[in-house]
Structures are given as C-alpha cells and as structure tokens.
Amino acid sequence: MTDKNFLRDFPILNRTMNGKPIVYLDNSATTQKPESVVRSICGYYGGCNANPHRGAYQLSIRATDIYETARARVAKFINAPSPAEIIFTKNATESLNLVAYSYGLTNVKSGDDIVITVSEHHSNLVPWQRVAQSVGANLKYIYLNADGTLNDSDIDQKISDRTKIVAVTHVSNVLGLKNDVRAIADKAHAVGAVIVVDGAQSTPHIPVDVRALDADFFAFSGHKMLSPMGIGVLYGRERLLDAMPPFLSGGDMIEYVEEQSTTYAELPQKFEAGTQNVGGAAGLTAAIDYIETVGFDRIESIERQLLDYALPRLRELPFIELYGCDQSVLDRKTGIIAFNVRDVHPHDVSTILDLEGVAIRAGHHCAQPLTKYLKQTATCRASFYFYNTTDDIDRLVDALKKVRKVLRLDP
Ligand code: C6P
C-alpha cells in the first residue's frame, strides 16, 4: 500500500528507539532528512564554505551561487513571480515576525483591526498580539464550526473596513485542516487589507502557488520539508517588501552607511542582515529536488492512504477521542491526527508510546487558544509524511491499546 523504498533514503528511520524499530509520527514538528540533503550540507561545508556576497575569491563566489540558486529554486517551487520576493529567514516564526514588525508596525494604526483565526500557531498569533498592543489596534479572532473548519459567517463578520491585516494558517498544525486561503484573500483584498499566510504545515505536503492563493505574504520553515533546521522562507509581494523598513539591521543589508544615517540594499538583501545560512540553503535546494522527484501527487496520495487506514482503526478504539476528523472535513484534511486517550494525560500517552518505539507529540502544540477552544488542556498528535507506512499505523494502534492497561485503567 504505502512505500517502504523511501526508508533506504532515511537511515534514521531504520534505527531503533527503546529497543524497538522506530515509528516516527511527529512530522509536523520536523521531518527527517534524506541522505541527499545531508550530503548537500556536508558537501557545502566540506567543499566550498565561505562567506557569501562578500568575497571576490572563488569559494565566496561559489557560496553566493549556492545561496542564490536556492532562492531561485524556492521562487519556482511556490510560483513566486521573482526571486527578489524570497527572503531567507531562520524559520516560519522569524518570517512571521518580520511581517508583523516591519509591515504591521508601519501600517496598522490605533483603532484598526488585525484579524486572525483561533487555530493559529503561536508564531502567527503572539507577534500580532504584540503589534496590536504596541499601536492600540484590535486583535479579532475568527472562530470555528463544531467540525473544526473556519466559520464562514464569522469570516464575513470579522473582516471589515477596519481590517488592515488578515493572518491565517494554510493548514492547522493541530487539526490538520486546510483553509480556503484564496477565498479569505479575496475578502481581505476587498476591504484593502493584506493577507499573511502561515504555510508551515502546507508547503511540505501540498503544492503551493502563492499567485493562485493571491497571498501578500507566505511563510514556511525548511525543516518541516526535509531540509535542515535554521533555514526558513518569507515570500512577500515586491511592492509591499519594497515599501517596508528593514526588520534586522547590520551587515550585508545596506547600500551606504554614514555616521548618522544609512541607505538600504535592494530586495531581498534589505531583509537579510548578517551572514547567511548557505549550508541551510544548500540543504533546502536538495530537499526541493527530493520532494519534486517524489511529486506532490504521490505525497498527497500516500498521506491520504495513511489517513484512510488510520482513522477507522482509531475509531474502533472506544477510549480514543478524535479532533478535527469528522466525515464532513475529510476532503480538506492532511495527515495530522489529534486525539486523546480517555482519562490519560497526553504526556503519559506519549511516554508509553515511546517505550513501544512510537514517536508522537503531546501538549498544546504551540496553539494554546485552539487547545482551550477545544476544551482541552493538551492533546496527542500523530502526523505523517510520505515515508510512513501502514505498518507504522499498526504499531501506533497496538501501542495505544497498551496505554490504559499499563496505567491499570483497563484489565
Ligand atoms: N509547529 C509543531 O509541532 P518554526 O518553529 O518557526 O519552524 O515553525 C513555527 C510554526 C508556525 N506555524 C505552524 C502552523 C506550525 O506548525 C509551526 C511549527 C511545530 O506543530 C513546532 S511547535
């Protein structure tokens, strides 16, 4: 059914955890890295490491080339009109902070509204809280239907002439539900607002086209899509980025520096202060190569098979409560399943699963307002990628069957 051949490319998935073959189901936190990505990073550091953009010697020129090749590759990957609109950051969090502090603080005024959803990750929530607090704006929330989808009439009600920014996740990291970003973008643009899309959980799993989404800003992290940690992306519309002040300042983002004033470099350098993460960029290029070789059709189809295999098996367990898994939402669901085991704290569930070699995440998943909205303090979360198999699901289900027994809640 699913493909075990991928395991050859991911040596870490062939190791053991607590003496059992590892089942890695925490892909929404970070994915594993194929050997080609690891090789590309080693190749860069072992063969052509130098500070990019600064040296007139061969190694530096090569480092610049690797870095700028990655930028062009990312632009093509998300169908951005120009590589100048691709800003490399540390991760999605930094990308979203860049928009909040540079665009938000400049364009949002006292009494304006910033509209977000209750299912945002803290990275697309706390920066907006801080902007709203700084300028005296209102932070408004779009709430959910009982099945976890965004409530359309709430979207219509919250996005108004007062709205300056709409910030929304493409896919929720807890419920795994895809939002209709294009429809929200149309509504935001109709009132003259910009839309900021958090693509951390969509970019690894579904094809992203920032033009089709009509996104003004789009943020994601490399490490959730096979790349190393420490490289992230912000796409921004050129005319918006051009008009924005720098976020961080220092080396390589300037044109001229006088004692009392500075003029700034053109895009994208204006937003990339300090020495760049060339090794990360090399890894990101190799990761995009890998993803494109597998193909999004196949990635989506494998994750759909895993979901279709897992959900009925989890539903058979009488002590499992699922979130965001109603029949009505399955057409917009990605490979993320949030659940709880009756009367057991998710941290205990995760610890017992770990003893069985199964890695899941437990907690609030950096989405506390959503967790509270679901009337929970924490949940367990299993999240798939294309290298997972139905055997992994069997191992998850077998391990879950043990949880209440280990705690003597069931005979
Ligand atoms: N979510 C998770 O386990 P960073 O940490 O910057 O790479 O990504 C932040 C982020 C932003 N938006 C969404 C929707 C996310 O899921 C994440 C990261 C991880 O769910 C770690 S908390």
Textual characterization of the structure:
The protein has 13 helices and 17 strands. The protein is an alpha/beta fold and 411 residues long. The protein folds into two domains: 4-32 and 295-406, Aspartate Aminotransferase, domain 1 (Alpha-Beta Complex); 37-291, Type I PLP-dependent aspartate aminotransferase-like (Major domain) (Aspartate Aminotransferase, domain 2, 3-Layer(aba) Sandwich), CATH 3.40.640. The protein has a seven-stranded mixed sheet, with helices on both faces. Helix 7 (210-213) links the parallel strand 8 and strand 9. Helix 3 (92-107) runs parallel beside helix 4 (126-135). The mean pLDDT is 98. Bound molecules: ligand C6P. The site of ligand C6P has 18 residues, from helix 3.
Topology readout:
Blueprint: E1 16-17, E2 20-21, E3 23-24, H1 35-47, H2 58-77, E4 86-89, H3 92-107, E5 113-117, H4 126-135, E6 138-142, H5 152-158, E7 163-169, H6 181-190, E8 194-198, H7 210-213, E9 217-221, E10 232-236, H8 238-243, E11 254-257, E12 262-264, H9 278-294, H10 296-315, E13 320-323, E14 336-341, H11 346-355, E15 358-359, E16 361-363, H12 368-373, E17 379-383, H13 390-406
Parallel strand pairs: 3-15, 5-6, 5-7, 7-8, 8-9
Antiparallel strand pairs: 1-2, 4-10, 9-10, 11-12, 13-14, 14-17, 16-17
The structure holds ligand C6P.
